[in-house]
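Aim 2, interim progress. The first record below pairs a target sequence with its structure tokens.
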Amino acid sequence: MSGQATLTIDPGKITANTRVVIRALGGVEVVGVTKCTCGAPEVGRAMLAGGAVALGESRHENAARLRAAGVTAPIWLLRAPAPQLAAETVRLFDLSLASELETCAALDAAASAQGRRHQVLVMVDLGDLREGILPPDLPAFVDAVEALEHLELAGVGVNLTCYGAIMPDERNMTELVGLARAVEQRVGRRLLVGGGNSGSIGMIASGRMPQGVTTLRVGETILHGVDTLTREPTLGLHTDVFELAAPVIECKVKPSMPRGTVAQDAYGNTPTFVDRGDRRRAILALGRQDVMPEYLTPLDAGVEILGASSDHLICDVEAMVAPPRLGDVLRFRPNYAATVQLATSPYVHKVFTPPA
């Protein structure tokens, strides 16, 4: 241990989870989403080894990281780019999400300048109120995209659960397939039908998804083994792909009640405390600048997270069989939100275990 917080990632379990998800989807293709790990090439390669047909990223920097590591598989940009990034988008990504004609025109010009064609997945808003055009506007949008010489309309897609937390169901998925079929008739060819993200897996696995969805963008379920609608384990997947370890930098018996007048903490909150008497507490080299403590689950028996400041995680360790010594590590399981933060933090060391 280097004396700093470490996030350990198991690519073998990512590959195994990808295979299980793909089997459960019965022919629906999977775009493996690596954005949770900032485009870690090890994660991308693990998803591809498990059968993902492409990778999905939302940041140009992450796609550049994948390309620099030698990843040649298709990469999707999972949000529409700003028009100023059209050239970089065409260079790094094979497909991007589309909901603005001005951006499509910029992508077309960039693709022309690079002598390439760029694909777009037209997004429709079916209630979640994130990206997408409204269904009545779809025909005119499709016609405008089809008129662009260096842009290819790859398909029609939807995103749900990410902003409005609207669940995929028979109604909105049937509407999506119907819209896609109408566009196919309009353009005279078969198209991708993007049925959303991990939240749609349950519908397909249970046979409730209308026929016609061809592709899902899957990140959290592969990486954390959970149903994103409930955060419960699903499909027998590995839920232990990620493990966080942080070293103890202080361990002392102290009162459980602060002494003095309580004001706001460093994050503008007014904390409350319960008097539990004197308790042994450990301070770890990790803080809210790296991860929100609410998103961590202790793995060591007898550890309770009390709170954190920017750079210190405070844990009650009174119930541990043996108190930790300075330099010992305590271990935690991060959820998806925590993993995003930990992967982004430059202060957290990342370690990849050999594939299982």
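The second target in this work package is listed in the same format:
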Amino acid sequence: MTTDSSPPLERLLALLDLECVGEDAFRGHSPPTAGPMVFGGQAIAQALVAARRTVPADRPAHSLHGYFVLAGDPKTPIDYTVERVRDGKSFTTRRCTAKQGGSTIFSLEASFQIVEQGFEHSFEPPEVPGPETLATTSALSERLKSFLPRGALERMEKNSALDIRFVDLEGMLGGAHPGKTRQNIWFRIVDPMPGDDAVHQAVLAYLSDMTLLNTALAAHGRSIFDHTLQVASLDHALWFHRPFRADEWLLYAQDSPNASGGRALTRGQLFTRDGRMIASVAQEGLIRQRGAKI
């Protein structure tokens, strides 16, 4: 059992290590430092872990699609039930439902595939500064003390398993370049992780939800730290293209091709340091002014 004094990576891996409570049934918990709602990336990753545990070990996940139905309560355990939709010769399909108090808060469908060889092509990564040239999280927290909400600042200052570097910090804060619909972020897990590919996929699923909607807000000179806005993830899709390690630098190249009707579409492509494209992400989110007529 982990505590607040446990090493950060140990706490993260424990968060993704679900309790088996029955046949194809699992239970997850939120960290004691969670905010008022369950982090979307946590629900995605835990549902993927639950589904993965019902699939043969030689079939890694290649895609997942999820819907956020209700805001989750971090003080309440989350029960994950897996439905074995299909077991084919090459592909395995699973559906996972996450519930609290009998109500569905998140649903996920994931597909797993045997490892195969085939055609190869991919996009090239954008040209951006290397992560070593960018400000560390601790340096950012010092610079942003007078700007960030206390909760956000405390999370930045807390000993974390994640090292994240923003290529365009002003864009992330919504203070510059209105109309710009792209942002780039480097991140990695600081300490060495186990070699199991499924663990790296679960960690990437957890991290893939971060900062995406801010890409859409930055186009309007706003940020997720703006309390006059209502911002929430509505759905999330993730495709795994190639093996990777989450404890090595990954570039998260994000864009937002559209915002309309109180919603914004955001996308992300993930690259290794040597330019291999390892995953793609798409997410639609709610972005509206608080008090707006519905």
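The longest strand covers residues 277-289. This observation will shape the mutagenesis plan for the next reporting period.
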